[in-house]
Every structure is written in structure tokens, then in C-alpha cells.
Amino acid sequence: MTYKRVLLKLSGEIFGGQFKQGIDPEVLAAIAKEIEKVKRHKIEIAIVVGGGNIFRGLTGSNAGMERATGDYMGMLATVINALALQDALERINVYARVMTAIEMRQVAEPFIRRRAIRHMEKGRVVILAAGTGNPYFSTDTTASLRAAELDTDIIIKATKVDGVYDKDPVKHKEAKKFTSLTYMEILNKGLKVMDSTAASLCMDNDIPMIVLDLMHKGNIEKAALGKKVGTFVSKLIR
């Protein structure tokens, strides 16, 4: 089954490449090419980007900064990543629009649900930045919220690992990979896939999700075409 409309969630750390900070042009170009592969199938795409490669609000809070201020700074970091991704896409002739939850009309459009849907219907990639526009909400929660608003068929959460494990596979070689999970299992097991607010939103609105390795070539395309890849997460067991 090919999905008609997907929401791709990209963490900010991925943009930073090996050093997990700043923007690595080679990684950016590789991400753009993976998105272009999906567009060849006439699949509509919305993308939610993180900003952890530039600034993470929770890190600022842990260092003594007011949490709301840190979160707003993190939202601005996602806009930088969104603009960089837009440029990378348009350099390979994939038309994109950046839409932000915080108005900054000189650099991007404000997020308006109907306008975002219209952009996708016209074949443009919609890049959603500045989170929900509110502090205390993660970009995972943003992805869940926008997926529900834009009536997407699935969330593709692109990470640095090839699925969901019972423990960190980098630190534990015996870590077990799940091929499928329910959102309730994520909450009950305390798996570090997404925060509880995001998981609950997906569960309540019956939005499935695939967690996969972004940098494995072709993974996003396979997921968008309904092929088995990564870990499939849903309200009920598939």
C-alpha cells in the first residue's frame, strides 16, 4: 500500500552529521535526495524539523535558563534548519514551502492548515517549523499534532537507528529490536521513542508511525510505499 500523504519527522541532530551540531551540507544534500525519491511517486509530504543541532530548550533549562525562553530559542533553531532544508530541496528541483507556528513573514509563511494542505496538493513539500508555537511541547508532539491536522496517513520518524529497541543499541549490543509496537506499549515500557504527549496524541487519533534509519538509502521511500522497514507503531498490533 502506497500512502497518499505522509508526515516526515526529522530530528535536528541528524542535520549536524557526525558532530551533531551545526549543519552538515553533505548530510543536508543526502536528506534532500531521500525526500526527492518519495516525491517521484506523487506522494504528498509534510516535514516537521527539530532544532537540537543548534539549540535545545531543555538543555538551556537544565543550565539555569528559564524553560519558556529556552523553548522559544529552540523553536527559532528549527526555522534555521527548515530554511536550510528548503534550499537543499529546491537546488534539486523539489519545490518546498516553509511554514512557521510563530509569525516571521519575511522568511516564511505562517502555518495555516488549509494553505498547507493546498501546497501539498500542488506537489510542494511543506516544511513545518517553530514547533507548536508554545513552550513545553516537543517537536515529536508537533509532529503528532500536525499529522492529525493535515490528515496524513502515517508519521515517518527518521532517526539514527533502524527502529525501536528495548534499550540503547549503541550502549548495549544485546538490545532487542521491535518489528511492531503499540503506543500503549511505548508508554508502559517507557521506551525513548517519543514523549508521552506525542504518543497519546497518535494513539487517540489512530495515527500509525514508522521509526527508521534516515541515512540508510531508500528507507523513507520504502516506508512511504508501505514496505516493511524499521519498527511499525500503531494503536493496535498490525
TrEMBL record:
Catalytic activity: UMP + ATP = UDP + ADP
Molecular function in Gene Ontology: ATP binding; UMP kinase activity
Subcellular location: Cytoplasm
Residue positions binding ATP: K9, L10, S11, G12, G52, R56, T159, Y165, D168
Top-level taxon of origin: Bacteria
UniProt-listed GO biological process terms: 'de novo' CTP biosynthetic process; UDP biosynthetic process
InterPro entries according to UniProt: AceGlu_kinase-like_sf, Asp/Glu/Uridylate_kinase, Uridylate_kinase, Uridylate_kinase_bac
NCBIfam families noted in UniProt: pyrH_bact (TIGR02075)
Biological function: Catalyzes the reversible phosphorylation of UMP to UDP.
Protein name (Swiss-Prot/TrEMBL): Uridylate kinase
Naturally occurring in which organism (per UniProt): candidate division WOR-1 bacterium RIFOXYB2_FULL_36_35
Originating gene: pyrH
